[in-house]
Design a protein that fits this description.
The protein is mainly beta and about 425 residues long. The strands form five sheets. It has a 21-stranded mixed β-sheet that branches. It has an eight-stranded mixed β-sheet with strand order 5-6-10-14-18-22-26-31, with no helix packed on it. A hairpin with a 5-residue loop joins strand 5 and strand 6.
């Protein structure tokens, strides 16, 4: 998809004029993808019906849910095919819904089960209440949880703003997927996010994990992410001694099981900031704040990240007390890593602001290493050369012009853009 930003399907939405929760309508079968055709807000409501979790759906037009007054509760355990056909879902308002096992989840689909395939659309999302406090939840633009395998999400683009008052214990937030469960797997292919995620203040002191990722919050199973991007920002404030992880693409590889993360030909360009500069009681020494340009924290499992770029201008984990520098960890590619991982042919923006003490930050001008967790440092000018992205490895990243549009690299001002998906 291409257009005024990282893709283009017209922003001009034609409202159906019908209330979102109106009664059933006559439905037709899409001639292209043989799914139940959804052409307006009335028909869209069918997607939330638990009786339809195995049914295939296909968008037949843009769907505008703006001003309908209904908060969306997505289906739990959807296993069908959802074909977007290049259309836009506008104005989807998300709130938590309880799903199987007592989990809370929020997303276009509360959870996705085995065999689900979600493809080819733009979705604009927001939260029901920007001051809402959430706990024990998977929160994602496409799905809160992946609970089956395989699950495929391809050519999906997420816009909007997710704002929260606070996030409590065991909360996972991502623009595409909140959390992938243990022994489950997914593929994220040719997807993008311009979603901004903001947490106003974490006040709860429990030290169970909270994690936010540009595409995926928490990984307990397996995921392959390829040819995808993030330009949205992550901003989290905390006045609590707790544990928070945030990454440009993935927030956290959880210690449960043996998670496997593969990243190839991706970039993140949004700012990632965890601000703990207000005074915190550090008597409990287990609190940690970790940020990474592409990945927050690996606590278990194996990472393979290649041919990818951290373009973030700021990757910060800021604390106020110089005596607790070890509580804040930042990194250009990954905030904190261990184990037998593979980092190959990755790059990061020279001058990226990283820092932690007294609210200060310093420019990371390390030359680095393309095959390390820091990536090779390159100037913004170097990244504006299409040949760097397209040339074969190792002189370039080996990105395909059949998938990516590099024309914006030659433009300036408001017309400039990083590589975007076609």
């Amino acid at each position: 998809m291409s257009g005024d930003s990282n893709y283009s399907v017209s922003d001009e939405i034609t409202p159906s004029g019908a209330p979102f929760n109106a009664g059933a309508s006559n439905i037709t079968v899409d001639a292209v993808n043989a799914g139940t055709r959804i052409a307006n807000a009335i028909e869209f409501a069918q997607l939330g019906d638990s009786a339809n979790i195995n049914k295939d759906f296909a968008l037949g037009s843009d769907i505008d849910l703006t001003g309908t007054g209904t908060v969306w509760t997505g289906p739990d355990g959807y296993t069908g095919h959802f074909y977007g056909n290049g259309y836009t879902i506008k104005g989807l308002v998300l709130s938590a819904a309880q799903i199987n096992g007592g989990f809370n989840a929020a997303g276009l689909f509360s959870s996705l089960g085995s065999g689900a395939t979600i493809s080819d659309f733009i979705i604009e999302v927001s939260t029901e209440d920007p001051d809402m406090n959430i706990a024990g939840i998977g929160f994602g633009g496409v799905t809160g949880y992946v609970v089956g395998e395989p699950v495929t999400i391809e050519n999906v683009h997420v816009r909007g703003n997710l704002e929260f008052g606070s996030i409590d214990t065991f909360t996972s937030i991502g623009a595409i997927i909140g959390e992938i469960e243990q022994n489950k797997s997914a593929v994220i292919d040719r997807c993008g996010s311009e979603l901004n995620i903001k947490v106003k203040n974490i006040t709860n002191t429990t030290n169970n994990t909270r994690a936010v990722g540009g595409l995926l919050g928490v990984l307990k199973g397996n995921v392959e992410i390829r040819d995808s991007y993030v330009t949205g920002d992550i901003n989290i404030k905390s006045t609590s001694n707790t544990q928070v992880k945030a990454g440009g693409l993935v927030g956290y590889l959880y210690h449960m099981g043996n998670p496997q993360l593969t990243i190839d030909r991706c970039y993140a360009a949004g700012n990632i900031i965890i601000d703990c500069s207000s005074k915190i009681d550090w008597l409990d020494s287990s609190g940690t704040f970790v940020t990474g340009g592409l990945i927050g924290l690996r606590n278990a499992g194996v990472i393979s990240a290649s041919n990818s770029v951290a373009l973030n201008k700021k990757v910060l984990s800021i604390i106020s007390d110089t005596g607790y520098q070890n509580k804040s960890v930042t990194g250009r590619i990954i905030g904190n890593s261990g184990g037998s991982n593979t980092f190959a042919n990755n790059a990061a923006l020279l001058g990226m602001l990283t820092g932690f003490v007294d609210g200060s930050a310093s420019a990371n001008n390390s030359s680095g290493d393309a095959n390390s967790y820091e990536g090779i440092g390159k100037t913004e000018t170097a990244f504006k050369s299409a040949s760097f992205w397209m040339n074969a490895v190792p002189s370039g990243l080996g990105w395909s012009a059949d998938i990516w549009d590099f024309d914006g690299l030659n433009k300036s001002g408001a017309d400039f853009y990083w590589p975007r998906l076609k």
